[in-house]
Design goal:
Oligomer: single chain
Number of strands: 15
Largest sheet: 3 strands, antiparallel
Order of helices and strands: HHHHHHEEEEEEEEEEEEEEE
Strand order of the largest sheet: 1-3-2
Number of helices: 6
Structural class: alpha+beta
Helix content: 10-25%
Length: 329
């Protein structure tokens, strides 16, 4: 589910595309009857469960996007609370709690690859064409947010493989959005694809599942730190393990190298030929500059030069935009 975080000097990040665009789409269907928990408790539990799962799969992503698990949980919980109160939503506190119980047992491939279990799929009541801010509000289970990413309209159906997209939330379950960039000016559309399994062919457009890497044109287990690696002009991570923040670079004679993550105010970019990136959605304007801390929600932002926005907010139209389904009427 989108929202792309720019990691300096990386053309695109599979982790960012998979998670930031979908971090707030822990979409849980309603359950019959009442609820024994409050909306605030369910939202808090949802944020904690999702962020803990993401951290299990990719601590590196949590570090570069949120700084730590606690910040992730607080931010995601706020978006879930808004979604629980949205017009026509299929979410209830008890439904969310049921979904929360399923999250720890979901594989990293499914959690990061737009394929949560059926228990966590929403069905709202809003008809096609109605205003929405989250797919759980729509009877079709698809709110088309367009490039803006905040408010859209309920659409007929999610896109299958090959359909145009801006985020994973535009794609059918099990497919992901590749090549989109909503922070660019003008925005860049991507395409929904079915990620390759082990042994499948891969390239810059046909990527592998989240836990695999593209090694010499074939999906395989990622190489470990210090192992020899391959990359292409547009695939910065190459055959290394993106989930752990290792990349392939000629500066280290073609071996997988860990990306250091530093706080705001610290030097970032290419330092002695090696990449250093920023924590907590910080921006590195140019190589050799210092990390710029993200702007506050709804404040002015600059996705390229900083300040950016703290996930899951996006810098859209020069403003840090948070997902708030209750505001879409």
């Amino acid at each position: 589910m989108p929202i792309l975080t720019r990691i300096p000097f990386i053309a695109s990040s599979r982790v960012s595309a998979a998670l930031l665009a979908g971090a707030v789409l822990l979409a849980c269907s309603s359950s019959s009857g009442g609820s024994s928990v409050s909306a605030s408790t369910a939202a808090s539990d949802g944020g904690n469960a999702l962020c803990a799962k993401i951290n299990t799969c990719s601590p590196f992503f949590i570090q570069v996007s949120y700084g730590d698990v606690a910040t992730c949980a607080t931010r995601v919980s706020a978006t879930l609370l808004s979604a629980l109160d949205a017009n026509g939503t299929g979410w209830t506190p008890s439904g969310l709690e049921a979904c929360v119980q399923a999250i720890p047992n979901v594989s990293c491939d499914d959690a990061l690859g737009n394929s949560l279990p059926s228990l966590c799929q929403p069905v709202g009541t809003l008809a096609t064409g109605a205003a929405c801010g989250d797919s759980s509000q729509c009877a079709s289970s698809y709110c088309n947010l367009g490039a803006g990413g905040k408010c859209g309209t309920c659409a007929a159906a999610l896109g299958g493989a090959g359909a145009a997209c801006y985020r994973n939330g535009d794609c059918a379950l099990g497919t992901v959005c590749v090549g989109a960039d909503v922070t660019a000016s003008p925005e860049v559309q991507g395409a929904c694809i079915s990620p390759g399994v082990s042994g499948a062919t891969c390239d810059d457009k046909q990527r592998c599942s989240e836990v695999l890497a593209c090694s010499a044109g074939v999906c395989a287990q990622p190489a470990v730190v210090g192992a020899t690696c391959t990359q292409t002009d547009t695939d910065f991570f190459g055959s290394c393990n993106e989930l752990s923040g290792t990349y392939c670079t000629k500066a280290t004679n073609g071996v997988c190298t860990q990306i250091p993550v530093v706080a705001a105010g610290q030097p970032c970019g290419l330092i002695n030929g090696l990449l250093t990136t920023c924590s907590a959605s910080g921006t590195c304007p140019t190589s050799g500059s210092s990390c710029v801390a993200p702007a506050a929600d709804f404040a002015n932002c600059d996705a390229t030069n900083g300040p950016g926005c703290l996930a899951p907010a996006q810098c859209i139209g020069g403003v840090c935009t948070m997902p708030t389904p209750t505001s879409c009427q």
